[in-house]
Design brief:
alpha+beta; 12% strand
Length: 183
């Protein structure tokens, strides 16, 4: 059995990462509003297997779909003990998307992916651009499609966000960037 960190610590580290990296570097121009207004639901699971994680994911997708968006706009499902290997995690994303379809929530919710070893398919492992999706723990970000659509509509040239993030991250010293991610 893995040594477990208290959920409070995992949530604190994740929230701090959002403040320092995601908001601090401007990687997601939409994150500050939901973080400041405390509309992010942080869920830490002790799941150690894919099947356990899939069950928790199902429950969290249903909970987010049922929640009042004025109280919970998005969920971070943090799973520190499951899918530590990025390739296994990446394969699991297909199962996660299948669960969305199975629950008939496709078009209502979407899943974004974050992992400590995140790597874009066309990028080398050490490419700083990978840090746009690197997080302290493996996690699945559950988002409301309506919220994403509203945020994108209110942001001038939302299609440039990825390119801007790549330029920002590649412009930072890699060692400093790694320390920033780790806190």
């Amino acid at each position: 059995m893995p040594t477990t960190q208290p959920s409070v610590q995992v949530i604190a580290e994740t929230s701090d990462w959002i403040d320092r990296v995601v908001i601090g570097l401007g990687l997601c121009p939409f994150a500050k509003a939901v973080q400041t207004r405390q509309l992010v639901r942080y869920v830490v699971t002790d799941a150690t297997t894919e099947s356990e994680l899939l069950a928790v994911l199902e429950a969290e997708l249903e909970a987010l779909a049922a929640a009042d968006a004025r109280l919970v706009d998005t969920t971070l499902l943090i799973h520190p003990h499951a899918l530590a290997d990025f390739l296994d995690y990446n394969d699991f994303l297909h199962d996660a998307d299948d669960k969305l379809v199975e629950l008939e929530l496709e078009g209502e919710l979407q899943i974004a992916s974050f992992h400590p070893d995140y790597r874009f398919a066309d990028a080398p492992t050490d490419d700083p651009a990978n840090y746009s999706n690197r997080s302290p723990y493996p996690m699945l970000h559950l988002l409301r499609e309506a919220s994403v659509s509203r945020a994108v509509a209110s942001f001038p040239d939302a299609s440039s966000i990825y390119e801007r993030n790549v330029a920002t991250l590649r412009g930072l010293d890699p060692a400093a960037l790694a320390r920033l991610i780790k806190g």
